[in-house]
Amino acid sequence: MHGNYKLYSPTVLALTLATAFFLLAPVMFIVIYAFNDSSYFSWPMSGLSTRWFANFFANDRFMAAAKTSMTMGAIVTPLSLAIAVPTAYALVRCEFRGRELINALLMSPLLIPGVVTGIAFLIYLSNIGIGPGFTGLVIAMTCFSLPFAVRTLVANMHGLRPELEDVARNLGAGDWPVFWRIVLPQLRPGLLAGGTFVFVEAIDNFSISVFLSTADVSTLPVEGYSYIRDFDDPTVAAMAVVLIALSTALVLLAGRLVGLNRMFRIE
After folding, report:
1. What is the pLDDT of residue 110?
2. What is the DSSP letter of 4?
3. Which parts of the chain span the membrane according to its record (predicted)?
């Protein structure tokens, strides 16, 4: 590059910073509100307090919903990845009629509004005898979260060198050893990125969970919505901060294991 060439202009930089602030401002407000000493937000705040976090952890319904959300995420994540790995491999490595159609169908849940998807799952699961509840939530969230895992793994697969697989086969390795020892270790960034997205989506989804939750089985977002209908205090903001911290911790952990650059760029 020439010495006088600039990668960005001050206008672009200012617009980028303004956009980032606009996107992060609601999150920053939620964090500030969660530590507010008063039940109502005022500026300047009357003081700082962690009592709303204590209120959140002391609430039995929130803790039951947290257990449901975490258990569901722990089931949905490996289940989605188990389906996504062979799917991504087939979409990238195999040539067959209808491949593009299958790829489009797999991505379709990302294009359909969540409310429509939730109503569709409620009707379908009720008609086949499953109905709302934990099993219905797991099935619905697996189907809805699958595209996140497939997209990251497809991107990861495109970055692999098929010559390594050909060399292994030429040396006498079968298809399963090639996949297990050559392909799967290289999918580590995609597995971690896809697993993180799936887990966060599973525990954070509201538009689908609200249709499949029951009085006994409810997720954190649904329970938070029910809470704010009856109470007006920062407890739900404290819940949101806990979820933000959990999501951030998962991203940082995955980034430490494989590197944030590899995780999100899927090189």
Report:
1. 76
2. T
3. 12-35, 70-92, 104-124, 130-154, 191-215, 235-258
Q: What is the dihedral of CA 107, 109, 113, 119, to 10 degrees?
A: 160
Interatomic CA distance for residues 197 and 77, integer angstroms: 9
Q: 113-129: string of b/e by CB count within 10 Å (b at 16+)?
A: ebeebbeebbeebeeee
Which class for 240: exposed (0-12), middle (13-18), buried (19 or more C-beta within 10 A)? buried
Amino acid letter at 103? N
Q: What is the pLDDT of residue 131?
A: 82
- Domains delineated in the chain: 59-265 (1.10.3720.10)
The span from the CA of 49 to the CA of 233, in Å, is: 13
* Per-residue model confidence as pLDDT tens digits over 206-259: 888 999 988 888 899 999 888 888 887 788 888 888 888 888 888 777 777 655
Helices (H) and strands (E) in the chain, counts: 14, 0
Return d(Cα 124, Cα 135) in angstroms, integer.
Answer: 13
Residues 73-82: b if buried by 16+ CB within 10 A, e if exposed: bebbbebbbe
Residue 50 half-sphere exposure toward CB, CA atoms < 13 A: 3
Which uninterrupted H or E stretch holds 212?
helix 209-212
Give pLDDT tens digits for 117-174.
889 999 989 898 888 889 999 999 998 888 888 888 888 877 777 777 777 777 777 6
